[in-house]
Design a protein that fits this description.
This protein is α/β, with parallel strands linked by helices and 228 residues long. It contains 7 helices and 10 strands. α5 runs parallel beside α6. It starts with a strand and ends with a strand. The structure holds adenosine-5'-diphosphate and magnesium ion. The site of magnesium ion has 3 residues, from α1.
């Protein structure tokens, strides 16, 4: 089967003044196209650092990252921005929506960078908001939406350019358990539609939605288990 992601010996250090902080200490990871993966591990174990690398929001100190057969470690900032916009949808714990912007325009924004016409942006954003269950909230701004609805907008924004990989860093971390389940059902649908889904969580009930669970400890993979 085809690996959408291949990581070899990934190291990530941060320089804090004179001190070097060693966060990822040699990660090897293959992810097959269409996998549904949860990343777990204690706070500070390096989950978000790894997700930022996977999402091309950051580059490693050492090792190689191959995404869809392309060596990300060698890309320029422009190439990274381009691959991020085309291949990756990122969902964050704190939603990260533009506050004074409607749900429709939040979802349409990534298509501006992709150079799509205004008319096509609106049509596609309406379609995606309908898919995430917000057809009656398109003109609402984030502060006029519940937490779960805001996260739906963020999921819609992540999906709008039809990326092959959806990354979500604790997407239910700010939601109650009922709303968390609704958001996880959305990720289940996204996975069922053929996408690769990778999410970070520290809730076992959330991780149970995934088909494979990786546990990080102190910047290394402690275990890697396929459930089904
Ligand atoms: N930009 C940075 N500069 C220095 N240290 C960092 C930076 N980003 C993360 N770290 C450190 O890396 C460790 C792992 O962080 P993180 O990946 O956010 O963990 P997790 O998401 O598993 O809670 C923490 O000790 C954190 O302080
Ligand atoms: Mg984190």
């Amino acid at each position: 089967m085809e690996n959408v992601i291949e990581i070899r010996g990934i190291i990530r250090n941060f320089q804090l003044g004179q001190e070097t902080v060693y966060v990822l200490k040699g990660i090897d990871l293959d992810i097959i196209r269409g996998e549904y993966l949860a990343i777990m591990g204690p706070s500070g174990s390096g989950k978000s650092t790894l997700m930022n690398l996977l999402g091309c929001l950051d580059t490693p100190t050492g090792g190689t990252y191959t995404l869809n057969g392309n060596d990300v470690s060698k890309m320029t900032d422009n190439e990274l921005a381009d691959i991020r916009n085309r291949e990756i949808g990122f969902v964050f714990q704190t939603f990260n929506l533009l506050p004074r912007t409607t749900a429709l325009d939040n979802v349409a924004l990534p298509m501006v960078y992709a150079g799509i016409s205004k008319k096509d942006r609106t049509t596609r954003a309406e379609e995606v908001l309908t898919d995430v269950g917000l057809s009656d909230r398109m003109d609402h701004k984030p502060n006029q939406l519940s937490g779960g609805q805001r996260q739906r907008v963020a999921v819609g924004r992540a999906l709008v350019n039809k990326p092959s990989i959806i990354l979500a860093d604790e997407p239910t971390g700010n939601l109650d358990s009922k709303t968390s389940l609704e958001i996880m059902q959305l990720f289940d649908e996204i996975h069922a539609a053929g996408n690769t889904v990778i999410l970070v969580t520290h809730e076992e009930e959330v991780a149970e939605h995934a088909h494979r669970v990786i546990r990080l400890r102190d910047g290394m993979i402690e275990s890697d288990v396929r459930n089904r």
